[in-house]
Amino acid sequence: MSIIVPVYNEAAHLFESANKILSVIKPLVEMCEVLFVDDGSTDESWAVIGKLQEADTCFKGVRLSRRFGKELALCAGLERARGELIVVMDADLQHPPELLPEMLRLQREEHFDVVEAVKKTRGIDAQTSAGSASLFYKLFHQLAGFQLEGATDYKLITRRVLDAWLTMPERNVFYRGMSAWLGFKRAEIEFDVSPRVAGASGWSRFSILKLAVNSITSFSSLPLHFITLLGCLFMVFSVCLGALTLYYKLVGTAVSGFTTVILLQLIIGSMVMIGLGAVGT
What are residue 155's DSSP bridge partners? Predict the structure, then answer.
């Protein structure tokens, strides 16, 4: 089993988190690796990872050259995972390791390919962003067709799911959405989000907004269809305006120059919008 743990400035509690994860998983599997991916931490996280590797061969570390963001750090870990079963979880213990035995049971006994932990409650740290998160998930559901309300990155997946995921050529990575798109036989386990053992979230409001926009535009073609529709409406309007202008010209009441410029802009703009929508889809 491979456990992927993205890390960003988690030095204060990384020893505690690592030992707790290992204490839960070791009795359950014959072989395991806990792979920490340091996403350009500016504290002593990488030094702590080095000490963990010296203490137990199950611990492994990957250090990125700079901060790429959690999604890409997670990708780096998944690409290096060697286990037949793979788990992704956070380093701050808000994803409780105590769920791992039940995740393994569901996979082994009922042969689920994906066992995902779903938030029953968001926890104290996330209450302030609950409204915006709910709005995002509703928009994502309407536009992309996938229900991710309460979804987390905390999942157990099989090797065949990971192999399928690795073939996806996405540049804007959204692990929750991509794993949902893949399908496979799935099960859910609800959990209450625990308070952080230490530190604060590495997500800024801008990075969350950027992830939300990238996720929606990457998983839905509706914005492109909207641009095409808008281009068609502008084209119809320009044809109507052109007919009206021709009528005014014939009756001798047309204003020279001004209407022609507007018509040209409308026609060219609508053609560009229709072309962008067609090429994009």
Answer: 88, 116
Q: Is 123 left (phi over 0), alpha (psi -120 to 50) or beta?
A: left
Instruction: Return the SS3 of 120.
Output: strand
If you search the block for the tokens 């926890």, which residue do you land on? 123
Distances (CA, A) of 61 to 51, 139, 225: 10, 36, 44
Distance, in Å, from the CA atom of 226 to the CA atom of 237, rounded to the nearest integer, reads: 16
Using N-to-C axis directions, what is the helix angle for 14-25 and 45-55, rounded to 10°?
Answer: 40
Secondary-structure class of domain 2-219 per CATH: alpha beta
31-85, pLDDT tens digit by residue?
A: 888 999 998 888 888 999 999 988 888 899 989 988 888 888 888 888 888 888 9
User: 247-274: per-residue pLDDT in tens?
Assistant: 776 776 656 656 666 777 777 777 777 7
pTM (2 d.p.)? 0.67
Spatial separation of the C-alpha atoms in residues 217 and 225, rounded to whole Å: 12
Asked whether 14 and 91 are in contact (CB, 8 A), the reply is yes
